[in-house]
Amino acid sequence: MDMTDVPKELGQKILAAAESYGASFDDVTMDEIAIATGVPRATLYYHFRSKEQVLAFLLTSMLGDIATSVEAAAATGEDTQARLSNVVRAQLGAMAARPATSQLLVANLGRAGKLPDIAAGMDRAFQAPVRKILSEGVESGEIRPVDPDPTATAIFGAVTVVGLHALMLH
Question: CB neighbours of 170 closer than 8 A, spacing ≥ 6?
Fold first, then answer.
């Protein structure tokens, strides 16, 4: 399933309804998704073979939001520390914009699509820009030498966990 195959209006309805699913997608049925979105069940099945594909759509959309925010934050002409701070805020902001969807997706990552595809999407959305900032910071002498790959992964994990913790508390 390609996200571009989903009509914009249908995608918006699915994204809006996702805020009502709660943290577990186990008991959600395509009938309930149809009711929550106001979209006929047949239309949903035309675009999504299963509720797991709906989850994959939600994850792809969320990663797209993160990528857009992070790209803008990483592109500022500021120093390394400010750019990293901006990138962290960008991811947290994207999560805060859709709190229930963020919780739902993290709780159901294994069901939301092929794990290699999910990992590649996370890399494009957050880790690659962070690796670039880290590498440039080491090159300019602003930060001490670090291995950008595991450091970017650790930052992504930490920000995601902190973001989820904040979402659950508020």
Answer: none
- Cβ atoms < 10 Å from Cβ of 156: 20
C-alpha closest to that of 3 among 82, 59, 77: 59
pLDDT at residue 99, as a whole number:
86
Query: Which one-letter DSSP state was computed for residue 170?
Result: -
25-34: long-range contacts, CB 8 A cutoff, minimum separation 24: 25/51, 25/55, 25/104, 25/107, 25/108, 25/111, 30/54
CB 93 within 8 A of CB 67: no
Q: Are 33 and 48 in contact (CB under 8 A)?
A: no
Q: What is the pTM of this model?
A: 0.80
- What's the sign of the alpha-carbon dihedral 20, 25, 26, 28? positive
The number of beta carbons lying within 10 Å of the beta carbon of residue 123 is 18
Give per-residue pLDDT as tens, 42-96.
Answer: 999 999 998 888 888 888 888 888 999 999 999 988 999 999 999 999 999 998 9
